[in-house]
Amino acid sequence: MTRKIALITGASRGLGKSAALHLAAQGVDIIGTYHSAESEAQAVIAQVQALGGRAAMLQLDVSQSAGFDGFVGQVGALLKEVFAQDHFNFLINNAGIGAHASFAETTEAQFDQLVAIHLKAPFFLTQKLLPLISDSGRIINISSGLARFSLPGYAAYASMKGAIEVLSRYQAKELGPRGITVNTLAPGAIATDFGGGAVRDNTDVNAMVANNTALGRVGLPDDIGGAISSLLADGSNWITGQRIEASGGMFL
Fold first, then answer.
1. Helix/strand/coil for 213
2. For residue 248, what pLDDT is reported?
3. Beta bridge partners of 186
4. Backbone angles phi, psi at 248, to 5 degrees
5. Stretches in the chain below the pLDDT threshold 50
6. What span, in angstroms and rounded, lies between the C-alpha atoms of 236 and 240?
7. N or C, which end of the chain is more exposed by having fewer CB within 10 Å?
8. Under CATH, which number does the domain 5-243 receive?
9. Residue among 34, 154, 157, 170 flagged as catalytic
10. What is the pTM of this model?
11. Cα 109 to the chain's mean position, in Å?
């Protein structure tokens, strides 16, 4: 039986790494990207292999769309050489950065960087990868709980995620004839190094989140990796064009 393949951007750490390992445990092979931490990427390959899967990592700076054509060529070659296939099944647009600045103090440079990474990259990278995505494949775009609730300091970041949620619905509509589903997964506050690690390392922030979450704690990477793998499991193939929030019930 041919194993399915997932391409995950930003798979060397955090939520992308967790998604890779959860999917590998379900028998899915992994193509991941990393920005600069090659040693961390290699460690993820080893962990996937320990779970009985195959994995490869490619360097990609998602803020540089001029490099997307070359990256797509690399993916195509990798599929043939390593996985003996022409297509992959799942795309998870996960790579991103945190940014915290009040609306009044957000600079154009900060805004433009967020556009490039969180909106332009998922739009055009997905577009260019379409010929390599199998019919009846699945796409997950990562949004944020901040697109539903508002916390000062995230106006620009959350605006990008709101745009991604709209884009996902359009992708679901336009790719539906190929049987491709598209959904957004919106994490709540997660204890990672994202955005400087405040949720993980700042006890006041951690307590604030826990006190405003129905399940009484902050999220962990495995909470999101598990949610992603669930959305890509066989029983979820009738879900498309939806926003699924995995926040433990934050700010209900």
1. strand
2. 96
3. 245
4. 65, 15
5. none
6. 9
7. N
8. 3.40.50.720
9. 157
10. 0.96
11. 23
For residues 245 and 210, the answer to whether their CB atoms sit within 8 Å is no
133 DSSP β-pair partners: 88
Non-local (6+) Cβ contacts of 183 within 8 A are 138, 139, 140, 141, 168, 172, 231, 239, 240, 241, 242, 243, 244
157 carries an active-site annotation: yes
Residues 192-237 have pLDDT tens digits of: 776 666 677 788 888 889 999 999 999 999 999 999 999 999 999 9
CA–CA dist 220, 72 (Å, integer): 31
The pLDDT value recorded for residue 195 is 65
CA–CA gap between residue 68 and residue 223 (Å, rounded) = 30
How many other CB atoms are found less than 10 A from the CB of residue 252?
9
- Reading the block at residue 210, the tokens are 């826990």
Is 54 in contact with 2 (CB distance < 8 Å)?
no
CA-CA distance, 169 to 243, in Å (whole number)?
9
Token pair for 13: 């750490």
d(CA 9, CA 88): 14
3 DSSP 8-state letter: P
| pLDDT (0 to 100) of residue 192 | 73
Burial class (CB in 10 A: 0-12, 13-18, 19+), 225: buried
Residue with tokens 């996902």: 168
C-alpha–C-alpha distance, residues 7 and 29, integer Å: 9
Using CA atoms, how far apart are residues 161 and 164, in angstroms rounded to an integer? 5
